[in-house]
Structure formats: C-alpha cells, structure tokens
Amino acid sequence: MADARRSMTPFYAGLGAIAVVGAVLIGMRMRNTSAPLTLGPPIGPIAPGPRGVVYGSDSASVEITEFADFECGFCAQFATVQMPDVKTRLIATGRVRWRFVHFPLPMHRNAPEAHLAAACAGRQDRFWEMHDVIYQNQSEWVRSRRPAAALEGYALRLGLDGARYRQCVSQREAWSQVLADRALGDSLSVGGTPTFYINGREWETRDYSADRIRAVVDSIAPPAPAGATPLR
Questions:
Q1: In a domain? residue 120
Q2: Do residues 79 and 70 make contact, with C-beta atoms less than 8 angstroms apart?
Q3: Is 21 a domain residue?
Q4: Domain residues for 195?
Q5: Quick one: pLDDT at residue 231?
Q6: Cα-atom radius of gyration of the chain, to the nearest Å?
C-alpha cells in the first residue's frame, strides 16, 4: 500500500497544480471583466472631429459647450431646473446649439458608470433622455452599491434595447468616447463642473441660470424683432 500511495503522489500533485492554475486564470478573467472604470488615456484610436453630444440646430448662431459630471450636484441642479427652460426658449427656437461633453471627476466614484451608461444610450440615439433621467435620479444611483443595475433599470424604462445596452456596457464599447471628451477638458484645463464655453470662449460665471444664459445669447446674437421677415 505504501508503494501504491507513493506511485499516486505525482498524479495528485499534478491535479493540484492544474487546479491552482485554473483558479488563477478564472480569477484573472473575473478581475478583468469587473475591473473599475478608470480615467486613463483613451483605449484605441480616437476618431477625429468635435467631441461631445450635440442638441439643437446646426444653423444656430450660438453654440454652448457644457463640461459636466453626472455625479456633480451643481450639474444636476442645472440639468433639472435650468436646462428645461434653456431647451424651450433657446434651443427649440433655433438660437442655440448645445454640446454636452463628458467630464467625470476623479473624486466621484460612481460617475464613470453613469457616463458609460449615457454614452451607451447614445448608441441607440437616446442620449438626451438618459441624460435627463440620470440627473433626475442622481440621489438614488449615487448612493447605490450597484449603480450599474440602477442605470440599466433607467435604460430599460426608456425603452432601450436591453441586449444592445448590456453588451455596450459590459464590453465598454462607448468608454473611449467618454475618455476622449475628458481629454478635451483636460487640454483646456477644465478644473470643475459645470464649466461652460460659449462660441469657443470660456464663460466665467457662477450664475448659469436660464435667464442669465439668455441674456448672454441676446448680447451675441440679438433675437429678430417680433413679426420680422427672415432674410432669404
């Protein structure tokens, strides 16, 4: 029996080695798929062209660029209180084109998940709807231990294709877009959110109410007098 046990020792040792290697490989795979999103350099080539997500007419004479973080409280207040008025009075009337640029801040733990969710919604042409619902429910997903699950719930309630959305999030298909936007903000030394640029110039103000924005737009491109006939 002692000889038999000795003869089986290499066999069991081999099985143990295989088990250890298998466990390491499985662990590495799990870490890779669940690794946190980081704000490092973009992965892969970045397509040339303007950054951000645009809302409004291409012929608008004023473009406002907003660098924003979905976990930023001031950004949420602007998006939920002021932005609806901006949309109605300035964007819907063709006077302003709005450009939202992803700028997740490093200190905001759940912001990357929210920006990825919005960018993935954008792959289904639903960015702005997701933008609104993320800000409207900021207090919920920010405190969640599973923010991705809460964000997916919003996407499904908006009617997004669940399979496409989940694949985009799990494979991080839109993450390079977020990183490219963030890189643009870094190149401009954007230090906080929200930060606004109007026609390419930084707007340094703490009063970004809809009324104040309208006043600035009026100073750049005065509205046509009531009843005036547009030039052809």
A1: yes
A2: no
A3: no
A4: 53-220
A5: 40
A6: 25
Sheet holding 96-102, edge to edge: 53-55, 96-102, 62-68, 195-198, 201-203
The answer to whether residue 173 is domain-embedded is yes
Q: Take residue 63 and report the two structure tokens written for it.
A: 């473009």
Secondary element (H or E) of residue 222: none
What ranges in 60-110 are assigned the alpha helix state H? 73-77, 83-86
Is residue 7 situated within a structural domain? no
Alpha helices in the chain (DSSP H): 2-34, 73-77, 83-86, 111-122, 127-136, 138-143, 147-157, 162-170, 175-187, 210-220
- Count up the domains in the chain and report the number: 1
Specify which residues 96 forms β-bridges with.
62
Position 22 scores a pLDDT of 44
Q: Mind giving me the DSSP string for 162-201?
A: HHHHHHHHHTTTTHHHHHHHHHHHHHTT--SSSEEEETTE
Q: What is the amino acid identity at position 110?
A: N
> Residue holding tokens 């929210």?
114
pLDDT by position in tens, the chain (length 232): 444 444 444 434 443 444 443 443 334 333 334 566 555 554 444 445 568 999 999 999 999 999 999 999 999 999 999 999 999 999 999 999 999 999 999 999 999 999 999 999 999 999 999 999 999 999 999 999 999 999 999 999 999 999 999 999 999 999 999 999 999 999 999 999 999 999 999 999 889 999 999 999 999 999 877 655 444 4
For residue 122, the domain's CATH number is 3.40.30.10
Hey, CA dihedral for 12, 14, 20, 22, is it positive or negative?
Answer: negative
